[in-house]
Amino acid sequence: MSVQVSTEVSEVVVNWVDGAILVGMLVSTAACMLLVQRYASVPARVNCNDVAGFIFAAVGAFYAVLVAFVVIVVWENTSTARATTFDEADSLAGVYWMSRQMPLPQGAQLEGLTLSYAHAVVNTEWQEMAGHRSDPGATELMYQIRDNALSFNPNGDQQSAIYQNLIGHVDGLASKRRARLNLIQDCVPPLLWVALIVGAVVTIAFTFLFGLSNTWAHLAMVLSLAGLIALSLIAIKEMNYPFVGPNKVKSTAFDVFLARLPPPR
């Protein structure tokens, strides 16, 4: 319960941080724009409009491509994380149903391990992943599931077929778990963040070079661009890590698995 509360508090803090980024970027842009308007005369900047416009078009196009590339990468990373969780839950369901075909008591033991693993992932590990960590308890349960499956000694063709299917599902479960845990790191590296921030500063700064007689119209256009860039950076920040944020991957696949089970043997 305390972990869930801390997660909710962190999400509220993130929302405040996003709002602060947007407001701070708009305020700083407006301040810089007004300083330029005060200390650099409009006639002097009008002479630069043609050259500045040509360079600004190139800079804007380059920065738009960079932002679009990063947005696609983080979106695909989130989609991959969501698909991976469903594949992992499917493999876990396969282990569970094979365990119900195994003789007692080993089948019942493996069935209990799969349920314990699902509960550990939903109730503990999902909150741990929000802090870029995995749950050692869930990892230990994964080891126990594998050891139990490998220790099964099939007797006859039917049990041999169950064993082959069981091992395949266990291998898939372990593989998809590793794939999910590989995604608990940020998608956008620090160097790319530097490029995004520097590109934003340069793109917005170029708009200061244009000379317009109407200061407020110029300011409105510059702030519109700054706001659009700020929203793009905030969107990238929120999608940077697939298990945190408004578009975060939830434990839906495991919840569905747990909600559709027959009574235990």
Label this structure with key terms.
single chain, 265 residues, mainly alpha, 9 helices, disordered N terminus
Textual characterization of the structure:
- With 265 residues, the protein is mostly helical.
- It has one domain.
- 79% of the residues lie in helices and 0% in strands.
- It is built from nine helices and no strands.
- The chain has helices at residues 2-39, 42-46, 49-99, 106-130, 136-150, 157-181, 190-207, 215-239, 252-259.
- Helix 3 runs antiparallel to helix 4, helix 3 (49-99) packs antiparallel against helix 7 and helix 4 packs antiparallel against helix 9 (252-259).
- The radius of gyration is 27 Å and the shape is rod-shaped.
- Mean pLDDT is 88; it is low at 1-10.
The low-pLDDT segments are: 1-10
| Helical proportion, percent range | over 70%
The helix count comes to 9
| DSSP summary, beta strand count | 0
- The Cα radius of gyration reads 27 Å
Q: Quick one: overall form?
A: rod-shaped
Q: Give the count of structural domains.
A: 1
The fraction of residues assigned to DSSP E strands is under 5%
Mean pLDDT: 88
Order of helices and strands: HHHHHHHHH
Distance between the termini: 30 Å
Task: Describe the main β-sheet briefly.
Answer: none
SS class: mainly alpha
Short description:
With 265 residues, this protein is mostly helical. Helix content is 79%, strand content 0%.
Secondary-structure topology with pairs:
Elements: H1 2-39, H2 42-46, H3 49-99, H4 106-130, H5 136-150, H6 157-181, H7 190-207, H8 215-239, H9 252-259
Helix pairs in contact: 1-8, 3-4, 3-6, 3-7, 3-8, 3-9, 4-5, 4-9, 5-6, 7-8
